[in-house]
Amino acid sequence: MTETFFTYTDKIVNFTKADKELLASALSFRQVTTKTELVSYDKRTDKLFFLLKGCLRKYYVKDGQQITVYITTENSFIGAFDSFITGTTSKETIETLEPSELLVLNKKDLDRLYKEIPLMNEFVRKTLELTLIQFQQALTSFILDSPEERYTKLLSQNPEILQRVPQHMLATYLGITATSLSRIRKRIVEKS
Amino acid sequence: MTETFFTYTDKIVNFTKADKELLASALSFRQVTTKTELVSYDKRTDKLFFLLKGCLRKYYVKDGQQITVYITTENSFIGAFDSFITGTTSKETIETLEPSELLVLNKKDLDRLYKEIPLMNEFVRKTLELTLIQFQQALTSFILDSPEERYTKLLSQNPEILQRVPQHMLATYLGITATSLSRIRKRIVEKS
DNA sequence: TTTCTTTCTTGTCTTTTGTAAACGTTTTTA
DNA sequence: TAAAAACGTTTACAAAAGACAAGAAAGAAA
Fold this sequence. Notes:
Chains A, B: Residues 31-115 form the Cyclic nucleotide-binding domain. Chains A, B: This is CRP-like cAMP-binding protein. Chains A, B: InterPro entries: cNMP-bd_dom, cNMP-bd_dom_sf, RmlC-like_jellyroll. The structure is a homodimer. Chain A is of the alpha+beta class. Chain A is 49% helix and 23% strand. Chain A has a four-stranded antiparallel sheet with strand order 1-8-3-6. In chain A, strands 2-7-4-5 form a four-stranded antiparallel sheet. In chain A, helix 2 packs antiparallel against helix 4 (107-116). Chain A is globular, with a radius of gyration of 18 Å. In chain A, 31% of the residues are buried. At the A-B interface, helix 3 and helix 5 of A face helix 3 and helix 5 of B. Chain A binds a DNA duplex through helix 9.
């Protein structure tokens, strides 16, 4: 269950066997079907998720429409960080797009782990550093690149995403409408 | 010199006197004029900056044009995180927009501080958590909001920024051209 | 399979933005 | 102070995107 997770942590810090046992006992495994809401609108969340298998998205509702702002697949953390860290209610919804397998970590357990495992702060710090770089690149892409460039970049970084996520969700994730993405795709085909 | 900085850290963790002395000795003060480049294109950077006074921007060059992707004022960290953390050359340039006062921290000193100050990892971890939330909100705003909404949000969050930063830099920061921002401003005036 | 729902594409029209250039104003700086 | 550079706005035109609706295609469920 947790081997995949520790393959991930091993790339970041060297947890001892004892560390890993403490960590493993704090993590609970959860298997869910498609369309399961892991975090719901206007609810507080005290959980972080590590996605072992499957696919998730995070979305906002604006003018009655679901706008996808984040999509992720295997081997990454996800959570409504704002709500998790500040304790406010979440304006984001997180739901599965496929049957998925997750590890779940509660805030209380995490706070305990910070005290019990000296390396824990360093692990999270380094994970956040990498996450921050990713977010910064995504943000920069919105400023620097056209929607068409963002789409082709997304495809080259993650070719299988088109098979796993409906296009209209990818569209809002790219900051455009489904109609517009369809036209962009047509334009690309016509070019080649 | 470092009082302002420790006012900032005090909100995050309780460094001891000894911690603060170690930290203070690792920080060097730097006073610079407008248009000073703190990080340059295609150079490696091993420095983080804490802005005590003044105003900075981070920009990319695309098609010969400078595109501002980040602007910040007093009491915040800035750096080319990608280059700083991964050791690659920076594609970003960071420059001052006003005469500014900074604290400078070298990567080597930071790595030493992680060993000497037990709270250091926690401090950076919590700082990164807050930074991540900010980046996530900025990214979400690009997906959810129109340029006009982003502009009015920016003004309400940071009303003095219009006096401190040229409009054409704000424009690219909002993901649009200077021409477009000028039109948006006109539209807003006409509405009221 | 057949039905129902979701997804994707297309067309028309409107709005917004980008590009490029011109022009007056303000700010730098030599 | 005078010249040069930077800045903000405007215009005309082109390209792209949004809104809305219709219909085709694909997928899921009965």
